[in-house]
Sequence to fold (162 residues):
Amino acid sequence: MMPYEARGTDATIITGRIHMDTSTLAGIIFLVVGALVLLSELHTLTIYLLAVAAGLFAAGGLALAGGGLTADFALLAIIIILGLPIAHWWRRKLKNRASEDISQDDIGNKITVVAINGPHLRVDYRGSTWDARLADDAIAMPSVGATCTIARRDGNTLFITP
Fold:
């Protein structure tokens, strides 16, 4: 027996090198990618990435348990295919009228145009500069310094009328 050799495990350490079978390596890769996808989900808060992360974690667990690569990918696909509709349903269930009302509480407020770049405007609103567009393309472009009214908001973009 060599000085750094461990017997009876999938990973064998021999003189500082780790030798793994493909199932163990695939399991580690699935788990690491699953963790990265989960971190991305925490950043984006879309809920859909939770289904992908769950599939990657399940495939990683199966791979570490000795499942073949085909079974790992099949389990990954099944969980993602079943998980995405569940995530979509869950996301719709989490939406509520109060949060939508809060996001639309800007309607009717006044803004000041500070810059124009083609169809895109920069406006001063609530002490900061926002992206804005005209609510209707038929409306004449306001000039810099003009006061306009917010017609609606989509994310961080204000749609305005003169």
Q: What stands out?
A: Strands lie at 12-14, 17-19, 110-117, 120-125, 128-134, 147-154, 157-161.
